[in-house]
Request: fold
Amino acid sequence: MAANPNPTRITDAEWRLWEQSLLIIPGVRLGGVYANKSGYHNFVYANQANWPGNYSIRLAIDLSGDLTKARAIDLTMSTSEMTKRTGFLRAAALHPSDDRLSCAREFYGTLNGTVVYGLIHDGPGQNWRSSTSDSSHLWHIHISFFTLYCDDWPAAPGVPGLEAVLSVLSGESWEAWKIRKAGGPGPVPPGEDDMGVFCKQGETNDNVAALQGLLQLFNPAVTADRIYGPATSAALKSALATVGYVGGVPDGSVYWAGEYAHLQQAVAKKFGTGQKGDKGDPGEDGKDGVDGQDGIGVGSAVQITGEVTQVTP
Amino acid sequence: MGSESVQPGWHRFDEERGYDVRPVEGGFEIRDADGNITSLDVEEFEQLRAEGYNPKGL
Reply:
């Protein structure tokens, strides 16, 4: 785990979200957090100085907190992962009780690989509405965070932090999240065709490689050969025992979201997130950028509340 | 990392490797940190995202 490379502009919670996304999304790459352009990838002061009407600095909740940090992340991934992870985000946003995306302003991705899908809302507890953006979101998921919450990992009082966004991206269910946060042992693991299953014994794929990379943090002797055999099962069983996890599949032959969540918490405790750097001077840059969108917009898929917003996140 | 000025048409694709991408007719162009540009068709771009490399050496 590397330290936050730009603590002046990237919050530790945002960097932690990226690093832990590596463990759950096969092949994922960082498209960026801070970028010198209008919108959530830039910090509030820069937007106020250069793009004073931008939608990322209109809400009170976006004018509170650390005004010197970028407030968005881009995650580049394959089409199959795009559709899977965007589906997780959509399901969480539209779930009547799920509040794990409360800290998020919006997200963009695709549910089918051909049409950009996005939802936006104006604050925790507010209704989500459909939103559109450019075609680059066919190959990367963009998530913006309200300024007030962009450096919250566990949670601000009453509002789940970026940890909850990671939970959604992992495919963990709302119910499993609730049980886990309440300190329970975790729910009964899902069936084989459940989307919460990352991989299982007998498979050879990138998900297995991601699991083995995680297991190497617990035991460097684990071989990362992409093959989920008895050795990987045993290593998973051992790692789960190490972190005190008593749910899941006893022999380690299935790796699923509930187990992932416990392991990543243990990894976070073990490796930490590095020390914060000094604060930067507000407005020291942000003077010379122009918006980098490619201008090829596509229609949104579903109308949620009757209002569609066109934004450049 | 993560502090680049953004140029119109290009979108950051991979911070670690310094790749930017922009759509062109029939596919995409990838620009590396040295400014070298490689053209990819749609399948090659998908392969680059899925596996991290492609036949053109990216």
Summary: The interface with chain B takes residues 5-6, 9-10, 27, 29-37, 70, 74, 76-80, 135-136, 139-140, 285, 288-296 of chain A (CB under 8 Å).
